[in-house]
Amino acid sequence: MGKVLERVESCAGDIRQRTDFVPRAALVLGSGLGAFAEKIKPAAQVDYSEIAGFPVSTVPGHKGRFVFGYVEDTPVAVMQGRVHYYEGYSMEDVVLPIRVLGALGVKELFLTNAAGGISPELASGSLMLLTDQITTFVPSPLIGPNEEGLGARFPDMSEVYSKRLRALAKEAARKKGIDLKEGVYVQCTGPNYETPAEIQMFKALGAGAVGMSTACEAMAARHMGLEVCGISCVTNLAAGLSDKKLDHKEVQEIADRVSGEFQGLLWELLSSLPK
Ligand code: HPA
Question: Within 6 Å (CB) of ligand 1, which residues are found?
Answer without folding.
Answer: 114-116, 193-194, 210-212, 235-236, 238, 246, 251
